[in-house]
Every structure is written in C-alpha cells, then in structure tokens.
C-alpha cells in the first residue's frame, strides 16, 4: 500500500446560514467533480504487470483484521482455499456495490427530475451518476477478471429496489438515508483497509482509492442535503423517517459487511464459525457500529433519535453511547 497518499476528507461547511452553506457546498462539489475525476478504463491500469488477478495469490487471503480471517476454521484451510474464498468474497462485495449503485443512479435521476431550472443540485446529481457509472464499470470489470460468476440481486430484492428508486422523487430524505446506509459502511471498511498495516493487492488498492475519493463527495452531499431538508419536514414524514431510517441502515450494513449466504454454502462455513466471526463477535459488532457512527450522529442531530427512534435503534443493535 502506498503511504504517500492521504485519504480525502468529506467536505464541511462552516457558514451559519444553512441554505447558503448548502448552495456553496454543492457548487464546490460540482467543481471538484470536474477537477478530480476518474474513469474506469483510463485510470485503472488493468493490464499492467502486477495487476493480474491470480485466485491463489496470498494477497487475496483474509487478514487478522477481518472477523472471519481470525477464526481457527479459516486459518486451517489450505492456502489456495483461503485465497479463493477471500477473492470470491471481494468479487461478491464488488457485485453488491454495483447493484447498490445501479439503484442509486436511478434514484438520483428521479431526484434530479424534481429540481427546478438553475438548481446546482441538478448538475451535482448528474456528476454523481457519471461517477457511480464508472464505479460500476470498475466493479464489474473486477468481477469479470476474478473468474467467479457472481449473481446480482434476487427477485425479492429487485422489488425493494424499485421502491427505493421511487423515493428519489417522492421522499428524497429517506432516499438519501438509503444512500448513506449503503455508502457509509463500505467507505468505513475501505478506509480502514487502506490505513491498515496489511498489504493489499495493487488492483484492489487502486479501485478502493478511486472509490473513497469520489464517495467523499457523495457522502458529503447526502449529509448536507439531509441537514437542510429534514428540519423542514412535517410531523408525519419525520415520524416515517424516524421509523424507516434504522430499518434501512440495519439491512444495508448487514448486506455490506457480512458474507452472502451463497458464499457460506459454497465454502461450507459452519454456523458455529458464522456465530464466532459475526453474530456473537463483539469486535465485529463494534466495527459495524463504527461504520454507521457518522449517520447515527447525523440522525441524532436531526432529532430522529427521540424515545421511539432510540428504542428502534436499540432493538436493531445499532445504538451505542457516543463519547461526549
């Protein structure tokens, strides 16, 4: 891993007027999308030496920094099996990211369709669609080169996806909660991996660095949009957001952070190992909470963690006592 590159921080805005601050932020994000942008087949050296995907490469093995990688069951696997499992899980995460961004792009287009002429958010939404399209190309190219035939969404998930897409037009505040629920956990995981002492395959590192750079803009827009618009919602919509937000976040975090059932069956991972690595693993639970800490803090700031909200977050094991 390169140690000379710093990970981008999310944009912040200190202007006291929230509306003016949001407009200023969006214009800056639009400018950054022109100045610092990436393309899948221009900025990822897919065919350079060292970028080739070898399914037996030890760099694909799960590390001690990953819950499953710390288990005795995983460590006892033959080296080739450890590498294969790690690579297929990475490819599965790429496919999940692609499917999430497919829904996100369609929802953003619905959102853009509601905006008046001259709105800077319109330009931003299209910048993000373009950036997410290149992310999807990167993810699918990785899947293709991995050698694994990773499936997309199941039919039931497709039905849910159509509902989320409509939210971009009908309830954008809930749509952007969905955005944060999908982007925050994987952004956290990728940043932790890039900061860690464990070596990363150079192709995966390049993809992750591009992803976190542009996702910093996407996360910033979603947070600031919510800060501006949630306080303007009526009582019923705020209640809906209070109830739906923890449900969306719990489901998205689980999809992003745990291995899919298909992978569990394929590698015959015992249920006892799943409990050890995930269900009953306090370190994994702490990491999952950390991956949602920013959006949970945002929901608190927006007044969505009153008595009902806090009860739901606790029931879903999403609630933690934050440092004062």
Q: Which keywords apply here?
A:
single chain, 324 residues, mainly alpha, 14 helices, 68% helix
What is the CA–CA distance across the termini? 34 Å
* Beta-strand share of residues: under 5%
Low-confidence parts: none
Give the proportion of residues in helices.
55-70%
Assembly level: single chain
- Give me the Rg, rounded: 20 Å
Mean pLDDT: 90
Q: SSE order in H/E notation?
A: HHHHHHHHHHHHHH
| Principal-axis shape | globular
- Biggest sheet, in brief? none
Structural class assignment: mainly alpha
Description:
The structure is a single chain. With 324 residues, the protein is mostly helical. The chain is built from 14 helices and no strands. The protein has helices spanning 18-35, 40-43, 72-75, 79-112, 120-146, 155-170, 172-195, 202-229, 235-257, 261-266, 271-279, 282-291, 293-301, 307-315. α5 packs antiparallel against α8 (202-229), α7 (172-195) runs antiparallel to α8 (202-229) and α9 packs parallel to α14. It is globular.
């Amino acid at each position: 891993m390169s140690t000379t590159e710093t990970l981008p921080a999310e944009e912040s805005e200190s202007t006291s007027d929230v509306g003016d601050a949001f407009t200023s932020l969006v214009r800056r994000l639009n400018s950054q999308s022109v100045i610092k942008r990436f393309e899948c087949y221009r900025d990822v050296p897919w065919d350079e030496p060292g970028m080739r995907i070898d399914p037996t490469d030890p760099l694909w093995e799960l590390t001690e920094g990953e819950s499953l990688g710390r288990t005795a069951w995983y460590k006892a696997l033959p080296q080739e099996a450890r590498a294969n499992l790690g690579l297929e899980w990475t490819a599965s995460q790429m496919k999940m990211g692609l499917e999430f961004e497919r829904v996100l792009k369609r929802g953003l287009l619905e959102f853009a369709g509601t905006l008046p002429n001259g709105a800077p958010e319109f330009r931003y939404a299209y910048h993000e669609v373009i950036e997410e399209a290149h992310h999807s190309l990167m993810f699918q190219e990785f899947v293709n080169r991995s050698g694994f035939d990773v499936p997309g969404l199941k039919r039931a998930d497709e039905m849910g996806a159509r509902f989320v897409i409509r939210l971009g037009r009908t309830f954008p505040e809930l749509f952007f909660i969905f955005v944060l629920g999908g982007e925050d956990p994987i952004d956290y995981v990728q940043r932790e991996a890039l900061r860690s002492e464990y070596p990363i395959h150079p192709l995966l590192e390049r993809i992750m660095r591009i992803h976190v750079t542009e996702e910093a803009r996407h996360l910033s827009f979603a947070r600031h949009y919510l800060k501006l618009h949630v306080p303007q919602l009526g009582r019923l919509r705020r209640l809906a957001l209070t109830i739906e937000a923890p449900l969306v976040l719990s489901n998205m975090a689980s999809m992003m952070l745990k291995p899919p059932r298909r992978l569990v069956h394929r590698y015959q991972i015992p249920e006892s190992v799943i409990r050890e690595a995930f269900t009953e693993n306090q370190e994994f639970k702490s990491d999952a909470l950390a991956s949602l800490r920013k959006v949970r803090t945002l929901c608190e700031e927006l007044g969505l963690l009153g008595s009902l909200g806090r009860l739901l977050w606790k029931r879903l094991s999403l609630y933690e006592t934050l440092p004062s």
